[in-house]
Amino acid sequence: MGHLKIVVKIPDTIYPELVADLDRVQLRDRAERVRVLAMIGLRTLVPHANTTTTRSQGSDLTHDDHQQNTRTLIRNLTDSL
Q1: How many Å is the Cα radius of gyration of the chain?
Q2: Measured between alpha carbons, how far is 76 from 26 in angstroms, rounded to an integer?
Q3: What is the mean pLDDT of residues 9-28?
Q4: Can you give the residue ranges of every domain in the chain?
Q5: Residue 57 CB partners (closer than 8 Å, separation 6+)
């Protein structure tokens, strides 16, 4: 897959927190900020979508492991801004 181009209108009457957050980000960095927020949201909705690591005996990651992976992902994404 190449890439997607998506144009989004975000009404401040419906999403005031999001508009306020994006307003603090430089214009050229806003698309990246939206991508970061989308990845965080996706990771929250689908916790094991990109997780292939398992513990011994083939069991799934524990809740604590998932939380740590999510914190690491969020830190990596926000550090890149």
Answers
A1: 16
A2: 19
A3: 95
A4: 16-79
A5: none
Amino acid at site 40:
I
- How many beta carbons lie within 10 A of that of residue 58, not counting itself? 6
- pLDDT for 18 equals 95
pLDDT, tens digit (0-9, with 9 covering 90-100), for 36-75: 999 888 888 887 655 444 444 444 667 777 777 777 777 7
What DSSP line would sit under 17-46, residue for residue? Answer: HHHHHHHTS-GGGHHHHHHHHHHHHHHHHS
The answer to whether residues 55 and 67 touch, using CB atoms and an 8 Å cutoff, is no
Quote the CA–CA distance of 30 and 23 in Å, as a whole number: 8
Q: How many residues does the chain have?
A: 81
Instruction: Retrieve residue 67's tokens.
Output: 């939380």
